[in-house]
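Researcher: Structure for this, please.
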Amino acid sequence: MPRLALRVLAAVVGTLTLVAGCSGGDDSGSGKGRRPAGEQVTIRVPGDAPTISAAVSLARPGDLVLVAPGVYRESVKVSTPRVTVRGESRDKVVIDGRLQQPNGILVTAPGVAVQNLTVRNNTQNGVLVTGSAKAAAGLPGQSGGYDTGDEPVTFLKSFLVSHVTATRNGLYGIYAFSAQNGVIENSYASGGADSGIYVGQCKPCRIVVRDNIAELNAVGYEGTNASGDMYVVGNRLVGNRVGLTTNSNHQEKLLPQKGSVIAGNLIAANQQTATPEQADGGWGIGIGIDGGSDNQVARNRIVGNSNAGLVITATADIPPVGNQIVDNTFTGNGVDVGWTFPTATRGRGNCLRGNELRTTVPARLATTASCPMSAKSTSPAGQWAAPTAPGGIPFTDVTAPAPQPQFPNALTAGATAVPAVPALPDTADTADIPLPSASLLAADARVRTS
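Model: Predicted structure, C-alpha cell format:
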C-alpha cells in the first residue's frame, strides 16, 4: 500500500511530518487536512510531533498518539473524541507539571483512552476526565474537589484510564468528575493531597474502578455523589491515611450518594504518617461511608487500620441508609465496625451479615443489625476513642513510586476502542468476586501493614 506524507506547519514548532498508511498519493495541508475519511494513523512523539500536545492537536477520532520515553513538561488537553494517548514505557514517559499547571492530562471528549505513562507534580490532578467546563477550567472548591455553582450537569460519555502512574499531585491522581461509562484500571496513585483515585458527581455512573493500587495518599479512593452502577473492585488500598470513602457532599451535585458495589478490595494499614494530611482530619480508617446509601460492601479484607476498619456516619443532614456489610474479613483494626452519628441525623436500615470480625461499636451489631434490615429501622450509634492524627508531609515529598507493570504490547497494539458503555459486573459477577488472600498483604508492599 502506498504511503502518504502529511506535512503540517505548526506555528511555534516548525514543520512536522506525519507518516501514515493510506491509499492516495502526496498531500500537503493542515494537520487534519485531506486524509481519507475513517483512516486511522499513529502519530509518534517526538518523531512526528515534538510534544504530546502537538500530536494530540493533529489527531482525528480513532488515532493513536504514541509517546517515546522522555520527560514532557506540558499540560495535555484531549478534546477530540476516541483518541488514544499511550506511552511506550509507563515509567519512562513522564508528564511533569513542575507545580506550574493544574492538570497533567485533561480529557474533555468521549471515548478517549489514556495508557501506560506517568503524570506527576501537578497543582491539581494527574489525569482529569470531565464533562464540566468549570472543572476543566480548574476551579477548585474550598476543600478540594470542584464546586461548579449553577453550571448544569453535563456528563462526558465514556473513557478509559489504564496502566497510568499518578504521583505527587495537589488534589487527585486520577479524577473522573461529571463523567459516565468509564473504566479506571491497573493504575497506581500515590501522593494525592486529597485522593489517589476519585469519582464524583455521576448518576448513573456506570464506572468500574478495578485492579488499581493507591498508597501514600490522604485517601486512597473516594467516591462523592457517585451513584448507580458504580463498582470499586479488586483494588489494593494500603498505607494511606484513609483507605476508601463513599460519601455525599453538598459541594457537588446529584446528592445523595447511592448504590456503589465495593468488593474484593484489600484495605489495610491506613495510618501512614509520611502522607499528605486529609482535609477532614481522617486517619486510621479503612472504609468510611459518610452519608452514602444502598452501598454493598462485600468480601473485602480490611486489616490493621488503627482507628476503625469500617465507619458509617452521616453527612450534615444526609443520613446513611440501607448499606449492607456482607462477608468481609476484619483483622487487627482499632474497632472493626463502628457506627457513629454525632449530629441529630441518624442512619437507617444499615446491616451486617457473615463478616469475620472481633469488635463493633455499639457492641453486638452483628446480632442487633443483622441483614436484612428494614429501611425504616434506626441504626444504633456509639463512640470510641480514636487515635490522634499526626501531622502530614507536603505532597511533593511523598516517596517516589517503584516501577509498575507495563501495558501489554504498548508499541505494537493499535488504538484502543473505548466502548460506549463498559462491561459492568452483573449480580452473578459481583457474587463471584473473591476475598483477597492474606498473602497479598506482603505483595508489592512499600508500606508497613502491621
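Researcher: Any notable elements?
Model: Residues 52-58 form the longest helix (7 residues). The chain has four helices and 34 strands.
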